[in-house]
Amino acid sequence: MNFITPAALLEPQHFSVPAPWAGHIPFASWLVAVQKPETLVELGAYSGISYMAFCQAIKEQGLPTKAYAVDTWLGDAHAGAYGETIYQTLQREHDPRYASFSTLLRMTFDEALPQFSNGSVDLLHIDGLHTYEAVRHDFETWLPKMSHRGVVLFHDTNVFRDDFGVHRLWAELSVRYPSMQFSHSNGLGVLLVGAQQPPELLQLCGASSDAATGLTPGAARQVFCILGGRLEQLAQVLILQNQLHDARERETQLEQAGQQRHEWIENLDRQLLDLQNQLMHSQQREAELERAGQQRHEWIENLDRQLLDLQWRNTEAEKVVEAVNQLLNVRDAEVHELRQRLVVADAQVQEIYQSRSWRVTAGLRAAGKLARRWGLGTLVRRALKAAGYAVRGDWRALAGRLAAVRREAVLEQQLSIASDGARHVGVMATPHTLFVAHLLAQALHKAGITVDVMTEPPAEGFGLDGYFVVCPQMFKHLPPGEKRIVFQMEQSVSPRWFTPEYLHTLENSLAVLDYAQANLQFLEKRGIAYPHTFLVPVGGFAGYRDYLRHNNLQPQGVDAPCDVLFYGDANAPRRQQLLEAVGERFQLRIVGNLFGPELHRAIASARVVVNLHYYEGALLETTRIYECLSLGVPVVSETSADQAEHAALDGAVRFVPVGDLPALLQALDEVLHVSSQQSAAAQSDREAAVEASQARFEFMLYRMLLARRWLDYTQFQTLTSTTPLPGPRLALSLPETTARRAMFVSHQMPGVQVFDGVRYSPGWIGAALSYKYLAQQALAAQWPQLEVMEDDVLFLPDYVEHKAVVDAYLAQRSGQWDVFVGLIAIMHPDTRVLGVERQGGLVFITIDRMISMVHNIYAPTVLRLLAQWDERHADPETNTIDRYLQTQSQLRVVTTLPFLVGHHEELHSSLWGIQNSQYAEIIAKAQSELEAKVRAFEQNTSCHGVT
């Protein structure tokens, strides 16, 4: 047996702490060459000194081994806690060299167990927490994973301090299996747990002998101790050199910090002088405020007059209600039954009047207005539903429904003002948000709307049909609320802008647009919520330079070139520290108050723009990023608190962790020194991201215009039809209903994409238009089926298993079904069972009617029906999308018992203003009725001798 092979003489390419493991690298390489494992697993990789040696040996020996390192990279009681740097450093070293056959699994050892089948692991290295209990647990839980050739390595078998217990477990195991222990470098135990081993390993562990060579395990220990000792010493030298380098760097940083402190004191002196100047200006401002106080007094008097007018209108409305009651009283013969039910409802209403819930009934006094708009039939139906809540004593549900009706009436009044036809609008924006104004103007122009972009309120007054106001808090004079749609651009991580005055402006506008989901959650807590808000994420502008040139907004001349440009407020301490380091390494230019053509000229002079947050927990500055990308300039940016919402930018922007200066410098260096071929590919990625984000921005903007009736559905569909759906498995959700969206995302199933539903008032029409739009897009794409679930779907524990059975069942019967329904809410009394089958533990029932949209799969036959839904038929009793499908009596509807999914009961209905919990009894009743129909069908089938 020859130990001194080329494999044993491996020169490692990666050294890191802890140094003692370097002493076992020669043996590790020799072992890989002898055993030739198909699967290698290391439990506890830490900095990777052992794992990288295994990978290097696999690569140099050309083996087909699959290798896995399992670690949380968070530390433990022995290694201590550590930050992200350990993992990131290992990943940068590992991925370029070994990612083709090696994987870093960031999880606990127990979490990794399901990744490997029993009997699949040939070589296992255990180097995790070193207590007796921990290492014994690791060995026993992973032993079933070992193959018939399995070998287990234990590090630190020769460490007896503190609570290290590897030596204790080794003493127990080494007498049960062929084994050998190296005592040098903290000890390494070699345990042959598999029955089939190479002769070399059997000789090494004393399980066989080779009389020809006469080499013994003792000789092996001596050889590998000598070979490993050299590498351990070399690792210790390198570690000492790194420590010396770090100490020198800290000394330099301390010197720089002293200089920065001196500059900071000088800056404070300048700030003190500025404060003195501000005091003088404040005194001047005080005089101006006194004048403004007089104007405010006049404004309050005007409000008093408006209040008197509203009180008069309320009195008139009550007279209309009285007239409607008189009209109902004369309807005797035709509505005899209805009059009896109304007597019961009236009694319940009187109970409400006499209770502390009197405030709930305030909305009923708006019935006169609603009667004029809805018609008598709809008013009566809604009165009966309200009576139903009262009969059950469900006052909370009644209050919620009345509040929803009241909101609907107010919104209807606003829409009646705004929907007369907005054909010529203004876009007001401050100079620093002109990119957003141009993006809005371009999208509105595509919709056939004439647009004037302005940075100041028009001197001639607000005479256009409507106005979009970007950053409305920056303007002293605003258009009237019924003409004003505001685009809220502030970050909710800094609430200083969200004053009571600003919130009042948002609340009294026709609509509030916001670019970030996190902002919508913040605003909702302050009363600015759905249906008043709309998510419109800022995107790129394809052909932006052509747009600027066409509108004579292109920059004149050129600026001196620079490597890196930062524009914005550079006074934040964290920005100052990062920019100082960037300026030491690259040619950096910092600009502050530049806007319009001057800013675009500065951007054009840079090879890359760096985006740094003002606050560490900031949202992503999408306006800055997309403006640069639209002008063709690369961006390096810190990641953000809402990074998950910007996955589309991953290939177009180079992101680095927040505050990670080495990663920032490395990213800038790599972007500045890419090859021409890489540069062309990166530019292509940026252009694709710009086009995709612009399409999403326009979709969300047109979605808002449809909701506010500035567009009709045909215009909306025409404008957005070229934007493909994200996939054939969709979750229908409104981003503005933040609690529902957050609940769904927290339980989102793999492969399911979220689709931002179409908005309209009333909400049931918006929901139906969403299905109509999805059906039209799926048919245009010629998809064989479309799966749509709503965001209040409840995935039951066995969902994944049952869904696979359902998919197989439907695939086997292609063309024999029209729609699969995961949950039935209401059973139509005329529903017939057409067939019953059992497969995979489920009962599949085919029926001829359905009503429920919680989780369905639609074949082209039903997609065509959905695409033909008519939004002009505005009767919620017959034309909601589920009731519309229920009227189609020739459908082949497949469902299961038990139902595939449930329904979240704790969520609030975005359509009807009630809790979903009120559907629980309805669904249970539907399931009971379906079970009864199945029993009757099977009994009837059995009686007729059908098998």
Written description of the protein model:
The protein has 947 residues and is an alpha/beta fold. Helix content is 47%, strand content 15%. It contains 28 helices and 30 strands. Strand 10 (424-428), helix 13 (434-446) and strand 11 form a beta-alpha-beta unit. Helix 1 packs across helix 2, helix 10 (367-374) packs across helix 11 and helix 11 (376-392) packs antiparallel against helix 12. Residues 352-381 have low confidence and may be disordered.
Strand order of the largest sheet: 22-21-23-28-25-29-27-26
Give the helix tally: 28
Mean pLDDT: 85
Q: How far is the N terminus from the C terminus?
A: 72 Å
- Give a count of the beta strands, DSSP E runs of length 2 or more: 30
Judged by helices, strands and strand pairing, the structural class is alpha/beta
Largest sheet composition: 8 strands, mixed
Supply Rg: 36 Å
Q: What overall geometry do the principal axes of the alpha carbons give? A: flat
Q: Which consecutive residue ranges, at least 5 long each, have pLDDT under 50? A: 352-381
Helix content, binned percent: 40-55%
Beta-strand level of the residues, as a percent range?
5-15%
Concise synopsis of the structure shown:
The protein is an alpha/beta fold. It is built from 28 helices and 30 strands.
